[in-house]
Design goal:
The complex is a heterodimer. Chain A is an alpha/beta fold. Chain A is built from eleven helices and eleven strands. The N terminus of chain A is likely disordered. The C terminus of chain B is likely disordered.
Chain lengths: ~350, ~290
Amino acid sequence: MHASVEQPHGNQDVQPLLVVRDLQAYYRTSHAGVRRSIRAVDGVSFTVRRGEIYGLAGESSSGKTTLIKSIAGAIKPPLEIVGGSMEFAFLPGYGGLHRVPQAELERIRWRYLSYIMQGSMNVLNPVRRIGSSFVDFAYPHIGGSREQFEQQVVAHLARVKLDPSVLAAFPHELSGGMRQRAALALATICRPGFIIADEPTTALDVVVQKEVLGMIRGIQRETGSSVLFVTHDMGVHAHITDRLAIMYAGRLVEEAATAEIFRNPLHPYTRNLISSLPRIGEDAPRAGLGGAPPNLADPPSGCRFHPRCPLASEICSREVPVMREARSEHRVACFAVNGDDSA
Amino acid sequence: MNDLLLDVMEVSKTFARGRLLSREKIVAVNKVSLQLAARRPEILAIIGESGSGKTTLARMILNMETPTSGRLLLEGTDLAAISGSAGRLAFMHKVQPIFQNPFESFNPLKRVERYLLMTRRRFAGTAGEGAAAAAVDAALHKVGLSLREVSGRHPHELSGGQLQRVAIARALLAEPKLIVADEPVSMIDASLRMSIVNLFRTLRDELGISIIYVTHDLATAYYISDRIMIMQKGSVVESGDARTVLRAPRHPYTHQLREAVLLPEVTNAIANVTPSLNGLSPGAPERRA
């Protein structure tokens, strides 16, 4: 049915699609000789497997935006990659998109790697019709005759329940939900191996949000793309992601299958994050955490969560806990968590 | 004689859009009434999606928008009759807004503590610098910040969540009777959100402040509100006790909203089902305008 599109990497290699190793991305500024560095991403390692939706949860100043920028290769001063690497399976040897030459980037963008952002206006050119954006971004990769291409676009729009007439519309003529679905269609038409989804449904109304999430999931399952799905909304993570990493103050603190995180959160931060969510029909008081996320220009020593942590002991302010496998496929960075008795 | 804090009587707001010949009227708010009692502070949630008119209604309550028809009384005073800077200041003493995007509420060129001290002086007169600073610090502590933390910083140097807490602290400086908060926690960090939501409860219980909480988030509305009002396309479709309405919605629209809430637990609603995309038929686009 949709086999007309050649699938670039539909095989199920064991090799992960993205391997991030000990990434350090700092904002470095220098004012009147005073150097400051904000360690927004400080030693983050994870892998995104083929065909999975990998969730990344974190609040503001957790470094998740910086992490996404780094992975997307959008490194501009004062942001610097200080250490570590980000290796895509389809671009081996570079260690990060920021090291890839421009011509090579143009070859892979949209074809191997695409984006769905919160404001789809960032992707859809406001002064060009939706159809022109498809021609601009996708046609060079798909090729063939214009008629064939158009047919393919129309068929793909049907997957996100959009009528072909949207191709003649300008982005501002569409509702937020339609725009986001158009952006989703654009991001997936070339069947890229990797999609970065940064808060893609945050600006949408709840009813539309649920529908768009279902479409993202449906298309992802069909194309077998890997998705790095970033949102602060735990409800969205519960709904769509396969595995989930929790980020706090520039580091990952926990990672496991999404169902496992919700059923059995181990890190004290994750536990609070999940237990504090209000649910309709439950009247028990919910408590937020005391304190505030730390200033990354001067982060706490040791575990960066220790000043707010109810389980903190002396070691937590001295040493940095490493991510270790506390249970099978469940990594956590916390001295207070033992692997076995923590059910 | 009047024991209502706020009496909204059949207010409507119509906007005109388009050009001279293709002018069309959009009814943003359609004959909405609501009352808040003076002696019984409560949290009233106004729930709706974008385009429901909830923000327009909130702006009318804040006297930032004039109703096309209907009247609003605050402690018996018609909002339409408020004029002059003294009248507006007296109004702002009683009703304080909190908006969704704190970056739009603050002057980007001004350090935030200047802004807070100025607000304090405006509402509390010319107390000494030290007293004003103490009041600002106390207000900031109520929202989980301190004067020391925000001193010398411009709005862009704070996160959205931090700045929103500053905005709530700023509203508290006026010692208002009513706070109208439009999506106040949608930009607040998850670990702090419940502290802020709980803070609204404290404001109600300890300071006797009534709160109109405008939101699309049914879960937090359920958690903190005494009463809720569901709006759709400018009209109230269902209202009443928050627990009753959200546990057993009567109106189909309330039901639809309730069903769309993503539960913070893995239901595998999507996870286990691979929807077949082959049978999808293109829907008619919901073109705007």
